[in-house]
């Protein structure tokens, strides 16, 4: 279970770090999000930045450098607008601050501020069309990019989701995982695992992905969708990125329309086979269960508390739809084009 540190303690560490980027320690700090990492808005009278304090036991130093290297390559080689890390006065994009509590070094990274706001409900269909095309560009790049020798990231396969040491915690440890009806989720999960084993992890189906495309990690500005937060990027099934973009939207009244829009954008850039499309409900269930595991291992976070028992109740409903083949009919794509 993840224990959140006091915000004022993190602010003290940040104030020590800011001069590393030639920013006054008196700069204003505002907490933006607090989950795996703590992210702050840093501002003075002239400029704004975003500073991330990395959780000490989530990624290795090489893992964080790998994330920043891919973000930089995507920005330079595809034109995708990703957060740009800022080098410190020593030329390094990572800064290490002595942490008196543990006698270790805490890793921080500073990024240029990106203008925009999260997509509104009425903008989802249009935003997801752009997101689909952007995701395809990201995947095409991932398949071709020569990764640095030090590159290492987490895997979001079945072992990473539900193994002995899952990345975020097992779904069975989530909120209210023993409530009435949970056996339906267990049945759906078992069927999902069989399908994923059969689908396999060939290079055209599994590789480097963003893995957390939920709307909280997207900004829209002047009609353009921008990608934020690559902290969970790693190796997984490519269509898991569609599922991650549907986080908290699995029961949305416009679900199929949103998925269609994403696929329309994606297919303009890169192909997907019928076998890929047939597994969309599988990946949506996988993502749903991964988020259940996250909530159970992060009970102190604001998001987990907002999700509460209702997320488990909704997961049971989604599992019912999944088992009844009512989540998404990939054949509708062909009917749509007829």
Automatic annotation (TrEMBL):
Instruction: Tell me where in this chain the Aminoglycoside phosphotransferase domain is found.
Output: 35-272
Molecular function (Gene Ontology), one example: homoserine kinase activity
Domain of life per record:
Bacteria
Instruction: Enumerate the transmembrane spans.
Output: none
What the entry lists under Pfam families is as follows:
APH (PF01636)
Question: Has keyword Transferase?
Answer: yes
* GO BP: any one term: threonine biosynthetic process
Keywords associated with the record: Transferase
Q: Which SUPFAM superfamilies match?
A: Protein kinase-like (PK-like) (SSF56112)
Give the similarity note: Belongs to the pseudomonas-type ThrB family.
PANTHER family registered for this protein in UniProt: AMINOGLYCOSIDE PHOSPHOTRANSFERASE DOMAIN-CONTAINING PROTEIN (PTHR21064:SF6), AMINOGLYCOSIDE PHOSPHOTRANSFERASE DOMAIN-CONTAINING PROTEIN-RELATED (PTHR21064)
User: Any idea what this protein is called?
Assistant: Phosphotransferase
State the species of origin. Acinetobacter terrae
The major lineage groups are: Bacteria, Pseudomonadati, Pseudomonadota, Gammaproteobacteria, Moraxellales
């Amino acid at each position: 279970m993840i224990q959140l540190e006091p915000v004022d303690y993190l602010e003290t560490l940040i104030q020590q770090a800011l001069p590393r980027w030639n920013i006054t320690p008196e700069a204003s700090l505002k907490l933006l999000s607090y989950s795996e990492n703590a992210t702050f808005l840093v501002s003075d009278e002239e400029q704004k930045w975003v500073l991330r304090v990395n959780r000490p036991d989530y990624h290795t130093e090489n893992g964080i450098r790998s994330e920043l290297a891919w973000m930089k390559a995507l920005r330079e080689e595809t034109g995708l607008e990703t957060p740009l890390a800022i080098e410190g006065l020593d030329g390094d994009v990572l800064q290490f601050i002595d942490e008196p509590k543990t006698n270790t070094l805490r890793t921080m990274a500073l990024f240029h501020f990106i203008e925009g706001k999260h997509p509104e409900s009425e903008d989802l269909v249009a935003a997801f069309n752009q997101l689909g095309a952007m995701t395809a560009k990201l995947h095409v790049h991932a398949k071709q990019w020569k990764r640095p020798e030090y590159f290492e990231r987490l895997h979001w396969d079945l072992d990473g989701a539900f193994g002995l040491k899952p990345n975020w915690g097992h779904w069975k440890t989530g909120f209210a995982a023993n409530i009435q009806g949970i056996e339906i989720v267990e049945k759906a999960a078992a069927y999902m695992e069989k399908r994923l084993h059969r689908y396999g992890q060939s290079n055209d189906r599994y590789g480097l992905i963003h893995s957390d495309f939920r709307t909280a990690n997207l900004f829209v500005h002047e009609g353009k969708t921008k990608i934020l937060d690559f902290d969970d990027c790693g190796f997984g099934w490519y269509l898991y990125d569609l599922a991650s973009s549907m986080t908290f939207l699995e029961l949305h009244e416009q679900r199929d329309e949103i998925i269609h829009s994403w696929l329309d954008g994606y297919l303009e850039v890169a192909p997907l086979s019928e076998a890929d499309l047939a597994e969309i409900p599988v990946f949506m269930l996988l993502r749903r269960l991964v988020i259940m595991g996250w909530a159970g291992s992060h009970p102190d976070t604001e998001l987990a508390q907002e999700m509460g028992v209702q997320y488990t109740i909704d997961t049971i409903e989604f599992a019912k739809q999944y088992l009844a083949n009512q989540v998404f009919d990939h054949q509708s794509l062909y009917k749509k084009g007829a």
